[in-house]
Amino acid sequence: MRTLFLAIPALAMLLGGCASHPADAGGTWINEDAIEAAVKGGNLRQALLGMGPTLEWQIDSAAGKATSSNGFEVAEGNLTLTDKAEWRVDFYGNGAESLALDGDELLQASSDSAAEQTFKRVDPTKPQLPPGGAFEHRLYEAYMGGEWTVSEGEGLGAKVHFLPDGHVDGLPGMDRYALCLGGDCAAMSGAFDSIWLQSGPQGAAYILQRGKNQLEIYQATNQAAADEMPSLRPGPIAWRLTR
C-alpha cells in the first residue's frame, strides 16, 4: 500500500505538468479579419492596414522561430515561451510582439501602434508557402475569385478567372497578376489601388477599382517628372469586368 500512496502524488504532479503546458502554436496563421474588410469594398490597402498591420504569422515552435508578414515586408524573430504561457517574438533589433492562443485563434497583443489582432490557422495539410504566401492566396481567392466577364475592353465577352496563385485565365494578353499590398507600388499609386498585369516576362502596373460585382482596370498614367518617383493615376479604361 505504501508504494501505491507514493505513486499517487507522483502521478498527480505529472498530470498537472501536462495540463499546464500550453498548446502548440506552430503553423501558419492568417488575418481573416483583414480579408473580410477588404472584400467589403473601399480602398484595399486601407482595409488591410485597418485590420493589420500584421497579415500572417509562420511559427516554428521546435526551432524557436516566428516570421511575420505585412504583405510586402517579412520579419523573422526568436520565439520564447513566457511564464504566462504566452509567446514573445523578439525581432532582430526591431522590437517584440506578444502572442497567445485563444481557442482556435492566435492573438497578437495590442501595442502603441496597433490594436489586438486575431489570426486563423491554415490547414496544416496544405502545401507550405513562403512567408506571406498563404495570406496572399486566401486574399486573392476572396477578393478576385469567381468568374468575371469582359464587358468593356479587348476580348469583349471573354470569361476571366483570377486564380489564387497569381495566374489569370481569359484576360487577353495577360497570364499573371499581383495586387499591390504596400511598398513602392503603393507609394507610386497613392490613394488608388493598383494591380500588376504580366504576359510572359513583360508587365505593367494598372489602376484597379473594385466593386461588389465589378472590376475596372485602368491604364496607369504617370504624372511625375522624369527625375521624380512615378505618380500613377487612372488613365483610359483598359477593361471593365462584371461578375
What does this structure look like?
Helices cover 22% and strands 39% of the residues. It is α+β, with helices and mostly antiparallel strands. It has two domains: 23-141, Lipocalin (Beta Barrel); 145-242, no CATH class. The strands form two sheets. It has an eight-stranded antiparallel barrel with strand order 1-2-3-4-5-6-7-8. It has an eight-stranded antiparallel sheet with strand order 11-10-9-16-15-14-13-12. Helix 2 runs antiparallel to helix 3 and helix 2 packs parallel to helix 4. The protein starts with a helix and ends with a strand. The model is unreliable at 1-20 (pLDDT under 50).
Give me a quick take on this structure.
This protein is α+β, with helices and mostly antiparallel strands and 243 residues long. The protein has 5 helices and 16 strands. Strand 4 (74-81) and strand 5 (87-91) form a beta hairpin.
Tally of individual domains: 2
**Terminal Cα span:** 76 Å
CATH third-tier fold name of the largest domain? Lipocalin
Arithmetic mean of pLDDT: 90
What composes the largest sheet? 8 strands, antiparallel, barrel
Instruction: Report strand %.
Output: 35-45%
Helix percentage range: 10-25%
Inertia-based shape: elongated
Say how many strands there are.
Answer: 16
Ranges where pLDDT stays below 50 over 5 or more residues in a row are 1-20
- Strand order of the main beta sheet, please? 1-2-3-4-5-6-7-8
Report the C-alpha radius of gyration, rounded: 23 Å
Number of helices: 5
Order of helices and strands: HEHHEEEEEEEHEEEEHEEEE
CATH architecture title of the largest domain = Beta Barrel
